[in-house]
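We emphasize that the prediction below concerns an isolated chain of 163 residues; any contacts that depend on oligomerization or on bound cofactors are therefore not represented. The input was used exactly as deposited, without trimming of termini.
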Amino acid sequence: MTTDLTSGDAAALALHVDAFGRMVMALPGAAPVVNVVPVRCFPFTSPTQRVSLCDPQGHEVACITDLADLDPGVRSLLEQELSRREFVPTIRRILDISQGSEPTAWHVETDRGEVRFVLTSEDHVRRLGLNGVLISDAEGVRYRVLDTRALDPQGKKLLKRYL
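Result of the prediction step, given as a token string:
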């Protein structure tokens, strides 16, 4: 059974990391749940709203409506755990994309440094909202362009082929 944690309930949520590095969730009147995993329901469109806490079997045990409703310490711990699980580098510049048919080799500059990856299909480039883009490489790593308008003219030209 899932507990939906709205503003009043969310304040009662207690989270901590035990000696084994597992996240433990406690709610008043319920047994603690060990090894919960936080998952954003809408990671790109509403990153601070609707965060599920799942048990080790992947079943949702609680859903936080809005992270702003949490105690600051609990929110900080939850955001740290989410950032550890979510690896989505942001592309700042597209330096080169190989010519020809797929697969294509990409050379980009991200917020974590320069990266080279292979794109197996143009279907792995998709729009996120009006100006955002999500790119999934051959290894399953996702890269994000927050705003295509912020790319330099060369990067815009290279990316335009895929949009």
